[in-house]
Amino acid sequence: MRGFFRQATLVAIASLALLSAAAAAANKKPQVSTDNTKTHVAAKPHRVVIQVDQNDPAVMNLALNNATNVIEYYRAKGQDADVDIVTYGPGLHMLRDDTSPVKDRIKALKDAAFPSKIQFSACNNTKEGMEKKEGHPISVLSEAVIVPSGVVRLMEMQEKGWSYIRP
């Protein structure tokens, strides 16, 4: 019986040590490095996902303005930003090759974003629904990436800590 209590005590001590380490890691402050002149705090990544679900050029342009402003703001600070504009439902027209009223702006923004990253995500559920309704294949802009579901993409990006904007 004495061996059992010794083993149980060791397990309890080990468990407390693991819990203490986990709590310390959760409360850990950003790493700070110093050189001869300045102190630098490790920057948290700047990531934003922007929803477009309306076939409205004003909403599409506002989303592109938001993306441009984020990229330019952080560029001026010497930092990068990741932006994902997710389209679904009627908003898919933003990324349709045949109906996009903003395709020139999309190409220009894609070219100008570097070193920041911008992705244009097109909902495949919506695309397939439009193809069925219209009776022909739909092409998306070459700058777009087809994702299985726009809504799921938005949800998963937020679960990964991305900020969310709906213009």
Question: What descriptive keywords fit this protein?
Answer:
167 residues, alpha/beta, two-stranded antiparallel ribbon, 5 helices, globular
Write the layout of secondary structure elements.
Layout: H1 2-26, E1 32-34, E2 39-41, E3 46-52, H2 57-76, E4 81-87, H3 103-112, E5 117-123, H4 124-134, E6 144-147, H5 150-159, E7 163-165
Parallel strand pairs: 3-4, 3-7, 4-5, 5-6
Antiparallel strand pairs: 1-2
Report what the structure shows.
By secondary structure, this protein is α/β, with parallel strands linked by helices. The chain is built from 5 helices and 7 strands; from the N terminus they run H-E-E-E-H-E-H-E-H-E-H-E. 46% of the residues lie in helices and 20% in strands. The strands form 2 sheets. A 5-stranded parallel sheet has the order 6-5-4-3-7, sandwiched between helices. Strands 1-2 form a two-stranded antiparallel ribbon. It is globular.
